[in-house]
UniProtKB/TrEMBL annotation:
Family statement: In the C-terminal section; belongs to the class-I pyridoxal-phosphate-dependent aminotransferase family.
Taxonomic superkingdom: Bacteria
Sorted UniProt keywords: DNA-binding, Pyridoxal phosphate, Transcription, Transcription regulation
Protein name, entry field: GntR family transcriptional regulator
Domain HTH gntR-type: 9-77
Amino acid sequence: MHLQLDGRGPLHAQLTRALKSALANGRVGEGSRLPPTRALARDLGLSRNTVLTAYEQLRAEGFMDARVGSGSYVSAPLLAEAANDPPPRVAEPQTAYARRSREIHSLATLGTRRKVQGIRWSFQYGLPLVNPALTTAWARELARAAAYTTPNYPDPQGLPALREAICDYLARRRGVQATPDDVLIVSGTQQAVSLSARVLLEEGELAVVEEPQYFALRQILQMHGARVQGTGVDTDGLCVDQLPSASPRLICVTPSHQFPSGAVMSLPRRLELLQYARQHHSWILEDDYDGEFRYDSKPLAALRSLDRDGRVLYVGTFSKTLFPSLRLGYIVMPATLQQDLVTAKWAQDFGSSAIEQAALAHFMTEGGFERHLRRSTRTLQERRAALLDGLREIGAGRIDIADSHAGMHLVVWLRDKTHADLDSLLAHAHQLGLGLYSIRPHYLQPPDRAGLLMGYCGLSVSEINEALPLFARVLDQAYR
Ligand SMILES: Cc1ncc(COP(=O)(O)O)c(C=O)c1O
C-alpha cells in the first residue's frame, strides 16, 4: 500500500492522516481489508507500535472495524473528513537516513520541550550558566579576534593556536597528553559523535551506549543506522561484564560523570573497559562533557590517559564550560584515525568558524577561561547546595536523590510512582510555572521507577529558593 507521510508531528498522527487520505480518495474502499500492522510497519520502515496507534485512532473514530483473527476493515466512507486534511507539505523520506531520522527524532517535540509556555522556573538540563562577566570578556575576545583573523578558509582540523591551548589545558587539568596534531576542532559533541559514526560504523553495526545515556548521542547513532544497544551502569560506572559478547565497533561512555546517573567510573572498571576494547577491537568514545565540575575532589584523570592501545576518542566540549551556543568542542583522536576524521570534518563544513576559535584560543592562553571555570564551579556549587538542601527538606519520605558531587544536574527518583503519575505531576508543575522534566528520554528501555532529571544551571540560588515551595506543592498533591 503506497502511503505518503507529511512529516508533520508524531509519526502515528502522520500515518493516521495518510491512511485517511487513502480512504478518502477511494484507494481503499468501504469493506476493504487494511494491511496487517506488522506488514505495513515493515513496508513503511515504521515501528509496529506506530501503526497500531494509527489503526487504533481510525477505529476510535469509527472508520475501521477490527474482526478478531481476520484483521482490520474499512467500515465507513471518509470523504468529508479527508477533504479537510491539509495537503502534505513534506516529501516522503528520500533516503534510509531521512526515514530513520523521522522515526527517531522530532524537532517539533524538541521545540516544545525547550520553550514550554509560561515556565518561570526551569530545571531543564542543558540551560547555560548565565554570567555577565563572561559575556563582557567574550565580547572583548570576539572583537579582538575579528580584527586580526584572516578571512580565508580556516584549517579544517582547527586553528593551531586553539589546538595548542587545548593540549595545554588537557595536560594540566585532565591528565591527557596530546599534541596539536591529535586534536580536531568540531562544533560540539554532536559533531564529534556524528563524524565518529561516519568514520567507524557501517550501517547495521553494533554500537553500545550506557543505559541510561545522553539521548542526543544515542539518536545520532541510530539515525546513522547503527544497531544501538544499552549496557547498564552501577555506582562504578559502565558494567563492563554486561557488555555484549559480539564485538561492538563503538562503545560510548561518560566515565568522569555518567550521564545522567552521576556515577564516576572506578579505576578497575576503566582498566576492564580498555581490556575489553583491546580484546574485541572496539573503539571507545569518551564523552567528557562536564568532568571539570567536581565539588568534593579534583577532577579524575580521563580514560584516554590510561589508553595504551590508541582505541579511545576523547571528546570535550565548551558547551558546559562556556556556553552551548558557541558550538565548539574537540576530539583527541587516536593517531590511526586522524586522517579519516579530519577528512570527514573537511567534507562536512571545511572547518569551524575561525573568529570564534581565535577568540577562544586567546581566552584560554591569557587565563580568562580558567578564571571563568573557577567562578562557575563556585556558582554551581552554591546552586547545587541550595537545591539539595531544599529537596531534602520538602522531599523527605517521598523522593530519593542521586547525588554525585559533580556536574550541573541531579537525578530525583519519586517513590512508588508510575510514569503516568509522573506525567500528571509534570503537568501540575507546568501549571504553576515550574519546569520539571522526566529522565525517561535518556533511557532505551523505560526505567522501573519514575524520575526527574533536574538541571540547576539555569536558575540562581534565589530562583531555586522560589521554585522549591512550588515543587513542595506538586509533591503534596501527588502524595495526598
Ligand atoms: C552527556 C552529554 N554530552 C555532551 C553534551 C554536549 O553536547 P554539545 O557539545 O554538542 O553541546 C551534553 C549536553 O547536554 C551532554 O549532556
